[in-house]
Specification:
single chain; about 575 residues; alpha/beta; Rossmann fold; 9-stranded mixed β-sheet; about 20% strand
Length: about 575
């Protein structure tokens, strides 16, 4: 029995012509050579044993953007006065799928998706699609307006999906809303996340289809951000014939049960090469599937691509490359501080006084408390070595040492932070939670150093934010940190920070001592390093540069020749 994903009844033969979209070019060539309008399209997806999708297209006459069902499925303007459905020469219609976009932020993905969309929108039309997470109910300032409705079948029951649209700096943001996708937590609990990604897999291509019907706009590319959106991208690629670019912001190796895929009506996408059998049962690796099905694969730094070449990216040599993220200079600007007229020393003394600490040399950490990735436990171990005088120079720095940690996450690390504050009340302050971008900017603008102790970091924005605000990064030689921070030992004149090996508290402590003593003994040298940071970031890591490289990826002309690939693996 055929299950219709959008819950529509079959059309009558007199009003519509059925056309199946197949992936086989020979089969596609046999389709009727007729023109049809996307207006009134109803997408019927039949899953299970039959494993096919059918698109029913209402014949339409008069003005409007039209598309021909011919080999290749090329979009072309046919009727004069097609208006918004016709791209200007040199522009693209770009769809971005993401689970985070400002104002809904959990981590760096929100900043990246928002900024890349806004940069691309200067010369292209950009549509962002995301689960609503209830934004349309809580963020009144963005004035989300109802765009349309449709029905999906994601499991045994149908769900009515409402599409809301809001504008953010020239980007059209479409919020997909139903009882599941409205849940305010983005990634937790796990059962809700799984349900969200399944609903999004159905709703994303259906929303694109809705826009095609109303406006005659078919995206030239579906840019899929992380594993949460992979299934939606795969459906859009197969049945709407939209090329798929898949960006891995962080490898998570996330899986979903094969039984869940079948139950959700997505069983046709179960690729045997992506099945893993283990304690959890028969699982489907979404990241591996995304890598296999996409047309182009990107990640966010050269070093991360190198580090993970043997574990993942090397299997997709020839379509895998990297695109660095950028930085929002307009916000992360020392001139925007409320006390910008004061010196860094004065700002530091004031902000420490608010936390009950005397002035000193301030080391600042901001970010998620993540045992696996962020290395916060190593940072605490390094701070303890310094305060206990267990390495050369520590006894001199310890009286001036101040550390403020801002973040939340792993309860073990939160308790560790509180214990550090209890044990060293004159030196350490733990602020559990997030204070917002303005407060974070104030801490950057007051701190001497920003500690970034990550075990791995695909790209990371903290080091860029810190350098823009004059807080010198002390970080690990991993991923994007290694790509973006110019180490004092390697770049004498243009240095912007200090780098150490990951997972090594003693090396980290030594670097913190070295930089602290240098500030006491050679302030001019430290200020040179501090002054180098912002120009370095503004020159090399802009969202406009990222947008241009993504455009090259979209058009298939980005370089995928990588030095480490030529040698069969990382250096």
């Amino acid at each position: 029995m055929t299950r219709h994903t959008l819950g529509q009844r079959p059309p009558s033969a007199t009003s519509k012509i059925p056309m199946r979209f197949h992936t086989d070019p020979q089969e596609l060539a046999r389709l009727p050579n007729v023109w049809y309008s996307a207006i009134g399209v109803r997408l019927h997806a039949s899953f299970g044993r039959q494993r096919r999708h059918t698109i029913w297209c209402r014949l339409q006459t008069g003005a409007g953007w039209t598309e021909q069902c011919t080999k290749g499925g090329e979009r072309r303007p046919d009727v004069p006065g097609a208006g918004r459905g016709v791209c200007r020469q040199g522009t693209m219609i770009i769809s971005l799928a993401t689970f985070e976009h400002l104002p809904k932020r959990v981590g760096g993905l929100a900043e990246a998706a928002t900024s890349i969309g806004e940069s691309l929108a200067r010369d292209n039309e950009v549509m962002v699609f995301m689960p609503s997470h209830g934004i349309h109910k809580t963020e009144r300032e963005f004035k989300a307006k109802k765009y349309g409705k449709f029905r999906i079948t994601a499991g045994p029951s149908p769900f009515d999906v409402t599409v809301y649209e809001m504008d953010r700096n020239g980007v059209r943001v479409f919020l997909l809303s139903d009882d599941v996708m409205d849940h305010p937590d983005v990634y937790f609990p796990r059962e809700t996340l799984t349900a969200k990604l399944v609903h999004f897999a159905h709703a994303f291509p259906a929303a694109v289809n809705l826009i095609m019907g109303r406006e005659g706009k078919k995206p030239d590319v579906a840019h899929i951000n992380d594993w949460h959106c992979v299934l939606g991208g795969a459906v859009a690629r197969k049945y709407l014939r939209i090329p798929m670019v898949y960006t891995i912001h962080r490898i998570c190796r996330e899986k979903i049960a094969v039984s869940e895929m079948e139950r959700a009506g997505l069983g046709e996408f179960v690729d045997p090469e992506c099945i893993e059998v283990g304690p959890e049962g028969i699982m489907f690796n979404l990241e591996t599937f995304g890598c296999r099905v996409c047309d182009h694969l990107t990640t966010v730094s050269y070093t991360y691509l190198n580090e993970e070449w043997k574990t993942l990216f090397g299997d997709y040599a020839g379509k895998a490359t990297y695109v660095w993220n950028g930085m929002d200079f307009s916000f992360w600007d020392p001139a925007k501080l409320t006390d910008a007229d004061k010196s860094r020393d004065a700002r530091r003394a004031a902000i420490l006084r608010e936390q009950g600490l005397d002035d000193g040399i301030l080391y600042f950490y901001v970010g998620r408390f993540d045992m696996e990735q962020k290395g916060v436990d190593h940072m605490f171990a390094a701070a303890q070595m310094i305060l206990d005088g267990k390495l050369p120079g520590a006894d001199r720095l310890a009286p001036e040492f101040r550390m403020v940690v801002l973040g939340s996450g792993d309860p073990v690390l939160e308790n560790m932070a509180r214990e550090m504050e209890r044990k060293y009340p004159k030196n350490v302050k733990a602020i559990i939670g997030y204070l917002g971008r303005e407060a974070t900017r104030a801490w950057y603008g007051a701190s001497d150093f920003c500690v970034i102790p990550s075990n791995f970091e695909p790209f990371g924005l903290v080091q860029l934010e810190a350098m823009c605000m004059g807080s010198i990064p002390i970080g690990t030689k991993v991923g994007g940190i290694n790509d973006t921070v110019l180490d004092m030992d390697r770049s004498k004149e243009g240095a912007t920070g200090k780098l150490v090996p990951p997972r090594n508290p003693r090396e980290l402590a030594g670097a913190m001592v070295k930089m602290g003593i240098l500030q006491m003994d050679d302030r001019a040298r430290i200020e040179t390093v501090r002054d180098n940071g912002r120009p370095h970031v503004m020159t090399n890591f802009t969202w406009d540069k990222a947008a241009q490289r993504y455009l090259c990826v979209y058009q298939g002309i980005a370089s995928v020749r990588l030095p480490f690939a030529d040698f069969g693996g990382p250096f």
